Amino acid sequence: MSAIELKAPRIITIEDRGKNYSLTIARIPAKVWLRYFEGIQSTSENVNGKRVDSFESSSARLELLYATLTTAEGYALPNGKTNIAQVDGWKDMLPLGHRLAVANTLIDVRPSDPSDDEAIALGQESVYLDAVWSADASGKMRKFTGLRHNFRVPSVEQQRRISRDSTRSRVVGGSRNGKTIWLGAQATLVGLYDELIVSVEGYTVDGAAPDRDQVIEFMDAYHKVGAADALFAPASVKVDEDGD
């Protein structure tokens, strides 16, 4: 089974009007991901006596793209140019729809249903993710499913940390028309992931299964956040509504 190579650049391909375009993304360091998370705007404010919530992340995603995009292929270049790097400001010239598509692909990570029916062992928990990552050798994008993250069971103190940091905010302005800015807990989730992770499946580092230290160093921080967030989410209770 193929795996995500964590140290390799990502090549995102787009098909538009019958032609293929490819954009190459360098490996995204954790500090760049954390800057993206800090750029997400989640606010609540009072407008005419009513609470209005807003959420905006597309600007932060585009900034993430600009910081990590290294080259692009398939586009027609000005006369005399043989490489897109020779074009000043080429990133701004890419179609906005292409830029947004690539930026959205970088965060295309979601929880996955467990792929096995083993009983959960005491003292450990496994979380599964599905993710779109990079084009294969033929240039086709594919989704990786059942990416497994094996954790130690969180402590009460670790649960307390994420509960506290998930509700952090600051208020700007007065009490009547003040705006509440929600700060997010992604940095805390990354830290908790590093504390609790034991091993992963579905990823490689230099073509081999990574050890724990390599997982901590090279695992994509967005995958860390997705896995840790699922780890701290409550399970569902099965209720028989037809029972007596």
List keywords for this structure.
4-stranded antiparallel beta sheet, 13 strands, globular
Furnish the topology, listing elements before pairings.
Layout: E1 4-5, E2 10-16, E3 19-25, H1 30-39, E4 41-47, E5 50-56, H2 58-68, E6 69-73, H3 90-93, H4 96-106, E7 109-111, E8 124-135, E9 141-152, H5 156-165, E10 169-172, E11 179-182, H6 186-196, E12 197-201, E13 203-204, H7 212-218, H8 221-231
Helix pairs in contact: 1-2, 2-4, 6-8
If you had to describe this structure to a student in words, what would you say it looks like?
The protein has one domain. Helix content is 31%, strand content 32%. It has 244 residues and is an alpha+beta fold. Helix 1 runs antiparallel to helix 2, helix 2 crosses helix 4 and helix 6 packs across helix 8.
- Helix coverage percent: 25-40%
What does the overall shape look like? globular
Question: Could you give a short account of the major beta sheet?
Answer: 4 strands, antiparallel
> What amount of the residues lies in strands?
25-35%
Low-confidence stretches: none
Average pLDDT metric: 87
What is the tally of helical segments? 8
Tally the structural domains: 1
Strand order of the largest sheet: 5-4-11-10
Number of strands: 13
Name the quaternary structure: single chain
Radius of gyration: 21 Å
What's the helix-strand series?
A: EEEHEEHEHHEEEHEEHEEHH
Distance between the termini: 47 Å
The class by helix and strand makeup works out as alpha+beta
